């Protein structure tokens, strides 16, 4: 069995490939973007012009892995499965049978066990997912280290598709302004449970195993028992929405958090880019955030476009009455073009600038070898300024359209 010339180049470059004839690459793949010492096990497929694999990474240790247009930092382990359009920062890892789709970003030491499905999903540092999980269209933060991390229990689901056939359902578990400071209580989502998007869950929250959470609990540090709905029924008609205020607000807050994370990468994380592999990860992360932002605006647009039909149904059934939720739908339909423009444009760079500069001073004075080490060493007042800067971005974005919680 012949060995592909690019695989031979990898071998000459110092990449460890125990069974080189079994490794598949494509024309776009550049072997120069794989660090010497990387281990690629039998049956792996390395594809795409933007794929970059940093030092000490291991692919396919448990089962063949397909890695397509992904960026891997140092010591990343992708043990088996399909990985496409995702970025994995230093120490991130995923077990076998993973299905990781575009728009996914796992920051330092974030991980998943076997059979984890992610798409348009962001794990901030140390977040850990168990096995048999589907957690798409969500961001989760919280915790201070690998020993004190936010946890998604095994067999957990983020429900991201509604009976009205829309996906304006992103959930925020923790948040960006406080989560990036690595000083917040961990969040625990108990196994064999679920979260119905769009939802907001605060730091320090615990949802016991086996429960499905349908409400927001952004205040945090609560043991959450969702209200029982056994035996209750009410009229339902596909396409006929009721109150949409919470849905729209949660979407706007989520988009604001993505904008805040973009600013974090552009002003803070870029300071720590030292070589081509870190540059690829930095650019990859920004690309992932652009993808998430585009997806969320698209899904909110689709919701707005459903309002005329929903209002038509409501008017036919209301006999002249105008309930408050009908006013909400009219507002979204009318104001969406202006909202879309504001969301596409994003906040001005001057938003929160004084606090940003104060935080940057703290970063420079405490600068260590990497973002994790540095953020931990930044003084509490500087971290507070950094959180205020990022929260100002969230507030600016979520104000679009005049919706509020």
Topology:
Blueprint: H1 5-12, E1 24-25, E2 39-40, E3 45-47, E4 52-53, E5 58-59, E6 65-68, E7 71-72, E8 77-78, E9 81-84, E10 86-88, E11 93-94, E12 98-100, E13 104-106, E14 111-112, E15 116-118, E16 121-123, E17 128-129, E18 133-134, E19 138-140, E20 151-152, E21 157-159, E22 171-173, H2 176-179, E23 188-189, E24 194-196, E25 200-201, E26 206-207, E27 212-213, H3 245-267, H4 276-318, H5 324-345, H6 353-366, H7 371-377, H8 380-398
Parallel strand pairs: 1-3, 2-5, 3-6, 4-7, 5-8, 6-9, 7-10, 8-11, 9-12, 10-13, 11-14, 12-15, 13-16, 14-17, 15-18, 16-19, 17-20, 19-22, 20-23, 21-24, 22-25, 23-26, 24-27
Question: Features of this protein?
Answer:
405 residues; alpha/beta; 9-stranded parallel β-sheet; 8-stranded parallel β-sheet; 17% strand
Short description:
This protein has helices at 5-12, 176-179, 245-267, 276-318, 324-345, 353-366, 371-377, 380-398, and strands at residues 24-25, 39-40, 45-47, 52-53, 58-59, 65-68, 71-72, 77-78, 81-84, 86-88, 93-94, 98-100, 104-106, 111-112, 116-118, 121-123, 128-129, 133-134, 138-140, 151-152, 157-159, 171-173, 188-189, 194-196, 200-201, 206-207, 212-213.
């Amino acid at each position: 069995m012949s060995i592909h010339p690019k695989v031979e180049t990898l071998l000459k470059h110092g990449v460890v490939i125990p069974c080189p004839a079994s490794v598949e690459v494509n024309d776009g793949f550049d072997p120069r973007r794989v660090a010497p010492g990387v281990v690629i096990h039998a049956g792996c497929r390395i594809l795409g012009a933007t794929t970059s694999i940093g030092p000490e990474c291991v692919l396919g240790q448990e089962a063949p892995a397909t890695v397509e247009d992904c960026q891997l930092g140092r010591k990343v382990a992708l043990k088996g499965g399909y990985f496409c359009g995702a970025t994995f920062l230093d120490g991130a890892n995923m077990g076998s049978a993973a299905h990781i789709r575009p728009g996914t970003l796992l920051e330092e030491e974030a991980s998943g066990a076997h059979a984890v499905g992610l798409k348009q999903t962001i794990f901030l540092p140390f977040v850990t997912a168990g096995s048999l999980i589907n957690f798409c269209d969500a961001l989760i933060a919280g915790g201070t280290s690998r020993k004190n991390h936010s946890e998604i229990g095994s067999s957990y689901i983020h429900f991201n598709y509604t009976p009205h056939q829309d996906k304006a359902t992103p959930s925020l578990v923790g948040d960006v302004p406080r989560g990036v400071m690595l000083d917040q209580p961990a969040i625990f989502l108990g196994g064999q449970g679920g979260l119905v998007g769009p939802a907001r869950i605060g730091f320090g929250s615990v949802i016991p195993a086996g429960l499905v959470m349908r409400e927001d609990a952004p205040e945090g540090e609560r043991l959450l028992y969702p209200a029982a709905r056994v035996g209750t029924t009410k009229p339902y008609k596909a396409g006929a929405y009721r109150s949409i205020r919470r849905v729209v607000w949660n979407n706007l807050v989520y988009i604001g958090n993505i904008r805040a994370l973009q600013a974090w990468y552009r002003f803070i994380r870029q300071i720590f880019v030292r070589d081509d592999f870190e540059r690829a990860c930095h650019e990859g992360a920004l690309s992932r955030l652009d993808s998430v932002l585009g997806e969320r605006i698209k899904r909110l647009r689709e919701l707005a476009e459903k309002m005329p039909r929903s209002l038509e149904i409501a008017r036919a059934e209301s006999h002249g009455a105008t309930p408050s939720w009908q006013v909400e739908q009219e507002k979204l339909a009318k104001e969406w073009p202006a909202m879309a423009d504001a969301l596409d444009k994003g906040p001005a760079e001057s938003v929160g600038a004084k606090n940003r500069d104060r935080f940057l001073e703290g970063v420079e004075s405490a600068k260590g070898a990497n973002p994790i080490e540095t953020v931990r060493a930044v003084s509490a007042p500087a971290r507070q300024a950094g959180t205020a800067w990022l929260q100002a971005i969230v507030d600016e974005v979520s104000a679009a359209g005049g919706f509020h919680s």
